[in-house]
Amino acid sequence: MFLREKVAKELFTPTGKIVVIFIYIVGTIAAIYGCSQVEVDFKITYFIKEGANSYNFITKNEEYFASGFSPVIYIDNPEIDFTSVES
């Protein structure tokens, strides 16, 4: 009863419409800002129990072998087809 008789009548006045639109715009801006601040932090180990052998393997592999850098390969001769059997 209260929503129908009081709140609904106020929302359909020109001032009420402006307030609703303003709140909607502010909420949208806040949501866009929040989405821009999200950082993706995903690891497969989040889904594996800590005592499992695969968990131990993955953590040791990251600890000892993933501390280097990825090599970059440059090809000076673009005419060579590396997918052919002769190469």
Provide an overview of this structure:
There is one protein chain. 53% of the residues lie in helices and 0% in strands. By secondary structure, it is an all-alpha fold. It folds into two domains: 1-36; 40-67, no CATH class. The longest helix is centred in the N-terminal third of the chain and has 23 residues, at 14-36. The model has no long low-confidence stretch (mean pLDDT 86).
Indicate the structural class: mainly alpha
Report the count of strand segments.
Answer: 0
Indicate the overall shape.
Answer: elongated
**Topology as a string of helices (H) and strands (E):** HHH
Write the layout of secondary structure elements.
Elements: H1 2-11, H2 14-36, H3 53-65
Provide a short characterization of the protein structure.
The chain is an all-alpha fold. It is built from 3 helices and no strands.
Features:
single chain, 87 residues, 2 domains, 53% helix
